[in-house]
Amino acid sequence: MSNPSTGDSSGDSIENLSQENRHFPPSPAFAAQANAKSDLYAHAEKDRLAFWEEQARELTWDKSWETVLEWNSPYAKWFVGGKINASVNALDRHVAAGRGDRVAFHFEGEPGDTRTITYAQMLADVSKAAHALTQIGIKAGDRVAIYMPMIPEAAVAMLACARIGAVHSVVFGGFSADALLSRIQDADAKLVITADGGFRKGAAFALKPAVDEALKGKHNVEKVLVVKRTGQETAWNSDRDIWWHELVDSQSSEHTPEFFDSEHPLFILYTSGTTAKPKGIFHTTGGYLTQAAYTHRVVFDIKPEKDVYWCTADVGWITGHSYVVYGPLINGATQVMYEGTPDTPHKGRMFEIVAKYGVTILYTAPTLIRTWMKWGDEFPKAHKLSSLRLLGSVGEPINPEAWMWYREVIGANNCPIVDTWWQTETGAIMISPLPGVTSTKPGSAMKAIPGISAVVVDDNANPVPNGHGGFLILDKPWPSMLRGVWGEDERYKETYWSRFKGIYFAGDGAKLDDEGAIWLMGRVDDVMNVSGHRISTTEVESALVSHEAVAEAAVVGAADEMTGQGIVAFVILRGGIPHAGGEELVKELRAHVTKEIGAIARPRQIMVVAELPKTRSGKIMRRLLKDVAENRAVGDATTLADPNVMKLISEGLNSSKDED
Ligand code: WTA
């Protein structure tokens, strides 16, 4: 990043302050072998619906569709009349084609236990589990809550539900009993699938007690199916609880699947709202699977016979649904699945796993990349990472300097980076480079993938010109779009389709650079208003991270008598980089932001902290930092990954107020 932009964007919904001039085209060798070539854009453009039909035909359907799309805004139906089974697409068709011996998962438990599971084994396991679910009385359309550690049975449980048409609702294993109960209630789940516990940070944690606690509330859960993972002491209600191994293992490993309507609900996934009640985002089958598989093929350039693919997301998030379970398995990929945390037993654990399995494609989140930066380069450098050929990022804007670090230190300047923008609601990737085509810019998700349309607009829904910022909208329906908010139709319309009447508004700010590339600028709710300038948190954070001493930054707009809001920054320093300390460093950082993006964005106050408050999926909770910056009691922090962080931040504030 360098040079403040020359184009005047003041008055925009969000201003465009930074400019990036670095370009990284794919190597000719990568481009030549890529799954997606540059003609894919024009091909999709020519006839969008025919293009999506082509993608759908890559899947196995029991009966083909009659109509590609029925669109009554905001309600979409894709591949209408088609019949399909998700688990057949993930498993049976590979086994039938003679690929049963291919490894589906290299599982690595946190304590170091491993399992190698082939496609044939997965199919047998899912078949047994499907029989077990039927025996318990689960039928098509019933909802099943899955509350599991990151172990293969989590994927087996999801696919077994899908196989019999039951709707899974995966609840992240780090959530509390209360959070679990509210999700069980909202979906009216009949069954909970869980485990005694899992391994995290070097110890066994318990899950089953949270289920017991949750089920003291009001619900219609009849049975609880429990995988034995840790072997720890587990309280038991013999009328209700069933050990997975006792029920599942003895079932037949042959199961005849039924096929369901393309629009049959596949899953509900709750977005962990930071303030309001979580929304049950629900997805259906045919369109979702089509886009998950297509994006996995073209964005990750998967070569199922050769690649070892590792997406580090937990199945409790949408990324774990689309890019651990459905997309990769439909494409017959070989994956790594890791149960534990990145720093157990040491900070090089994940690099060790890359080297051990020869991982070729790594897909992770900026929060982890910045954590690696904070820990220092010696950890990745101690392991052989040369098997990597493609790197991906998702979940938050990736700051240009974090992107460069990812490229240089993890990718040895040798791997295209795909920064993929999408949401639980979109179901699959929407904006991303194509790795063999796009000349990428550090920090930009570049443009909508073939078949998808994304536009940056102003307050009146008019597209903004290059060099300007605004709101990100998706103006054409797409196959994996959410079909609603479970049981809350008004909320669906209100949340997504009302800011711009009849158009999907993602809630994110974005800008187009001078060449029309899309830069995500964070949630519009976080946009700061300084003396009438609307400044994105992302740009100021990226300016801070571009200073060599900074690994991670979070900024918020705090009430300010003079300027409306003043910018308050929280920064985490990088390991192993010498720098000025205290006041000296703060001064330097403020000057650095001024140089990078201009005086208007210079933070009023900068605080050096050891940690930032994050949700369980790694997103920074700026709302809580704003409470600190405005000297308020910190608000509801129940969705924080580490509840102690706010205390640490509030205590450690030897803040350094701007006096000039
Ligand atoms: C943010 C995760 C910038 C964005 C798949 C979005 C991103 C929200 C990116 C959805 C990215 C995700 N660049 N921002 N590449 N990817 N986001 O539902 O604000 O957990 O609206 O889905 O994350 O988060 P969710």
From TrEMBL:
Pfam families: ACAS_N (PF16177), AMP-binding (PF00501), AMP-binding_C (PF13193). Gene3D superfamilies: 3.30.300.30, N-terminal domain of ligase-like. It comes from the Bacteria. Acetylated. Deacetylation by the SIR2-homolog deacetylase activates the enzyme. Belongs to the ATP-dependent AMP-binding enzyme family. Keywords: Acetylation, ATP-binding, Ligase, Magnesium, Metal-binding, Nucleotide-binding. It catalyses: acetate + ATP + CoA = acetyl-CoA + AMP + diphosphate. Residues 1-29 are annotated as: Disordered. HAMAP family: Ac_CoA_synth. Mg(2+) binds at residues 545, 547, 550. Its EC number is 6.2.1.1. The keyword Signal does not apply. Residues 39-90 form the Acetyl-coenzyme A synthetase N-terminal domain. GO terms for cellular component: cytosol. It comes from Candidatus Planktophila lacus. ATP binds at residues 395-397, 419-424, 508, 523, 534. The lineage of its organism: Bacteria, Bacillati, Actinomycetota, Actinomycetes, Candidatus Nanopelagicales. Its cofactor is Mg(2+). Catalyzes the conversion of acetate into acetyl-CoA (AcCoA), an essential intermediate at the junction of anabolic and catabolic pathways. AcsA undergoes a two-step reaction. In the first half reaction, AcsA combines acetate with ATP to form acetyl-adenylate (AcAMP) intermediate. In the second half reaction, it can then transfer the acetyl group from AcAMP to the sulfhydryl group of CoA, forming the product AcCoA. One of its GO terms (molecular function) is metal ion binding. Residues 539-619 form the AMP-binding enzyme C-terminal domain. This is Acetyl-coenzyme A synthetase. CoA binds at residues 200-203, 319, 531. One of its GO terms (biological process) is acetyl-CoA biosynthetic process from acetate. The gene is acsA. Residues 1-19 have a biased composition (Polar residues).
